[in-house]
Amino acid sequence: MKRTFFLLITVLVLSTVILAACGGGAPAETEPEPPAEYAGKTNPFANQADAATAGGVLYAERCASCHGAAGAGDGPAAAALDPKPADLAVAAGDLADDFLFWRIMEGGAMEPFNSSMPAQKGILTDDQVWQLVTFIRTLAK
Predict the structure, then answer these.
(1) In this predicted model, what pLDDT tens digit does every residue of 13-65 receive, in sequence order?
(2) What is the pLDDT at residue 10?
(3) Which of 14, 16, 23, 139 matches a 20 to 30 Å C-alpha distance to 94?
């Protein structure tokens, strides 16, 4: 009887340890997929220096106050925002063209973002948004 009880306790303890080891840590964050209107779009200006330069001018005018000059999310207006602006230096290397284009066009006022980022749709042309995407790629760490 003692042996059976000891074996049962041992199995329970080992099972708990194994389950804890497998399930530890936070779940990986995944970004939502762009809606059909934006899904699959690719940057026609990818890796073009002149587009990156034009995008840099737009970025300084429209984005740097929140995202900061280097894209770290530390611009002068960032302190007053909740949620804080994204660190574009990290996002630039991780996010697809269609995602960046979508986020710039539609802004952040929708689920799951709920941010203060203003939509640029109807303000900037598609080409200007792609220039911004080209510039943002230069910020990648």
Answers:
(1) 444 444 344 444 433 457 789 999 999 999 999 999 999 999 999 999 999 99
(2) 52
(3) 23
In-domain check, residue 100: yes
Would the pLDDT of 4 be above 70?
no
For 51, counting Cβ atoms within 10 Å of its Cβ (0-12 exposed, 13-18 middle, 19+ buried), the class is buried
The number of residues making up the chain comes to 141
Token representation of residue 63: 């984005």
Say if residues 119 and 106 touch (Cβ distance below 8 Å): yes
Q: Is 10 domain-assigned?
A: no
**Number of domains into which the chain is organized:** 1
With the C-alpha atoms ordered 67, 72, 75, 81, is the resulting torsion angle positive or negative?
A: positive
What is the C-alpha separation between 127 and 51, in angstroms, rounded? Answer: 9
35 upstream amide cis, omega within 30 of 0 = no
Query: By three-state DSSP, how is residue 121 classified?
Result: strand
- How many CB atoms neighbour CB 110 within 10 A? 13
For residues 56 and 133, give the distance between their C-alpha atoms in angstroms, rounded to a whole number.
Answer: 10
Cα–Cα dist 38/73, whole Å = 24
